[in-house]
Amino acid sequence: MFAGITTGTRRETRPAGPETTASRPPLVRELLLVTALFLVYKFGRQLANGHEASAFDNADRVWSWERALHLPGEGSVQHLLLHGDTLVKIANTFYATVHFPATVAFLVYLYLRRPGHYLWSRRVLAGLTAAALVLHITVPLAPPRMLTTAGLVDTAQVYGPSVYAATPDTDTMANQFAAMPSLHFGWALMVAIGLITATRGRRRWLWLLHPLLTLLVVVGTANHYWLDAIVATALLGAVLYFVPAPQQPIRLPAAPKRVRRAAPPQAAPLSTAPAVHVPTHPPLPRQIPAYAATPLTPAAPLTQAATVTPQAPTPARTPAPHLSEAVR
Description:
The chain is built from 14 helices and 2 strands, in the order ββαααααααααααααα.
């Protein structure tokens, strides 16, 4: 099937893709699907509970790897937040309230305005979340706020608000030992990529501020390591590689307007053409050359005309006397 794309006065035919067909999936089905994925993720994370010893051992390794890679310490970002209670509370509120609503608003916008990009983004988010869930179960990791070696402050418990229970063992709503990868950062990065891909204009690159701000918040509040964000970026890149992106509509330049040239003036019909007056002159007298008036006499025969006139005899030449005789 082919779908025609009209741009200005030109039309191009191309294979129909997710965006060109603009087929919006049923709303009820999508709501049920997204809700099911969310519940599977929430309850799947509970499978990692009861592995506190492994979580803290892995946290020590991650902290050592970061120092070996000379990554900046998480405490440098937290130190900026702790300059005032207001700033750290804003960071805690951002961590607790922006993660899910921003992702839901992103999907709703694409569902209404860019159906093809919605299907692509939903598949990417589902693939990223599934890969993260596997790591959360197989590699439990305690966040840096629980690591004594890091010396960081649990800003959510000290300043509030917090989405986690004070004791991880009694937390039935979230798995606090699922730090790697950071889905806060992974989802925020996908939101930025999806909006940059689905929209136009130079300012669309400002959406990258969302994952950047999310990274500073998750690190500054000591909920994630730098490596958590790096691993989330790697997983997202792998999912983007395997999930085909929606086809972008080809924007062809509009054909130049044709300039109508003025038609050359046509000659008037003969019947309406004005009469042209040609002056007449009296005929010139015919002049007869003078040689034409003189009668021609016939030429004499060659035998008669060629009369030989006798010439006088040439006198004899007397030799000059010799010099000796003249001297005499």
